[in-house]
Amino acid sequence: MEAAGQRPGKSKPPGKGIDMTTVQEWNDGVVQQTLDSLVAEEPLEIRVNGAPLSVTMRTPGNDLELAAGFLLTEGIIQNGKQIASLDYVPQEKQPKQNVVDARLTEDAEFDSENLRRNFFAASSCGICGKASIEAVRVRGIRAPNSDFRITPEVLCEIPERLREGQSIFSRTGGLHGAALFDDQGKLIEVREDVGRHNAVDKLIGWALLNQRGDLGNWLMLVSGRGGFEIVQKCLVAGVPLLASVSAPSSLAVRLAREFQMTLVGFLRGRRFVVYGGEQRLGMRSGSSR
């Protein structure tokens, strides 16, 4: 879950997605030099059939999952079978791997010139405008699994399990997490990234590359806001319930209600707010449970 950076402590060897830097720490009038852990952030270029498609700032790690999830949630592919190959592209004089290329099968309709720049500009609260809603409908998104159920008591337990699964957050205190849970609150998988949408794409890409099908029997918890782009990505992947520890945007609520997704915000402690799809939680107005 996103937070300000933690106070520097004893140095540990950097892990994947972590950079180390020397800092000056002021602590009650005492100044000392120490090492601090920082979230790594680098650009990732995603290519399709050799043509540059998008560049995203991300935390290195699980890059192929990120690319696969991005291709699915942006409507470029409809399933994992349309990815013939997915790998890093070697770059001369570049020691780090920051370019991936997806080769698609012939049945994947890919127009590089048209797609290269028809991604919507996103605001901090999601993609804005009526046109974005219409574009989602054109992509054929369907309402997710209506039979998924989870109790409010189990739902309240999962934020702590997400926190426990965020290994990079525990070192840096400065990035987002996304996790999949089943209806019993069991943690299925977790991903972290400096961008909340990247964490979601990595998670969806993990399911795609591991042939887990759509995510209709799992819920997703994200550590930041439930913005439009997060709701949209989850709907593409078939997620029936999206929960966040913060607030959704108005357009996110509209989209979730349109497709009968359960959208939960402010999931903290023993309290949460349901913006739509309350039937999956067994809730009714005025209930004491």
Condensed summary:
The protein has 289 residues and is of the alpha+beta class.
Write up what this structure looks like.
By secondary structure, this protein is of the alpha+beta class. It has a domain at 152-281: Cytidine Deaminase, domain 2 (3-Layer(aba) Sandwich), CATH 3.40.140.10. The protein contains nine helices and 14 strands. The strands form four sheets. It has a six-stranded mixed beta sheet with strand order 10-9-11-12-13-14, with helices on both faces. Strands 4-3-6-5 form a four-stranded mixed beta sheet. Strand 9 and strand 10 (187-193) form a beta hairpin. 39% of the residues are buried.
Number of helices: 9
Q: Look up the CATH topology of the domain at 152-281.
A: Cytidine Deaminase, domain 2
Mean pLDDT: 81
Tell me the CATH superfamily of the domain at 152-281. Answer: Cytidine Deaminase, domain 2
Strands of the widest sheet, in order across it, are 10-9-11-12-13-14
The rounded distance between the terminal residues' Cα atoms is: 27 Å
Shape label: flat
The helicity comes to 25-40%
CA radius of gyration is 20 Å
Secondary structure tally: strands: 14
Q: Judging by the overall fold, what is the CATH architecture of the domain at 152-281?
A: 3-Layer(aba) Sandwich
Classified by CATH, the class of the domain at 152-281 is Alpha Beta
Q: Uncertain spans, ≥5 residues at pLDDT below 50?
A: 1-15, 117-132, 169-173
Order of helices and strands: EEEEHEEHEEHHHHEEHEHEHEE
Outline the biggest β-sheet. 6 strands, mixed
Structural class by helix and strand composition: alpha+beta
- Estimate what percentage of residues fall within beta strands: 25-35%
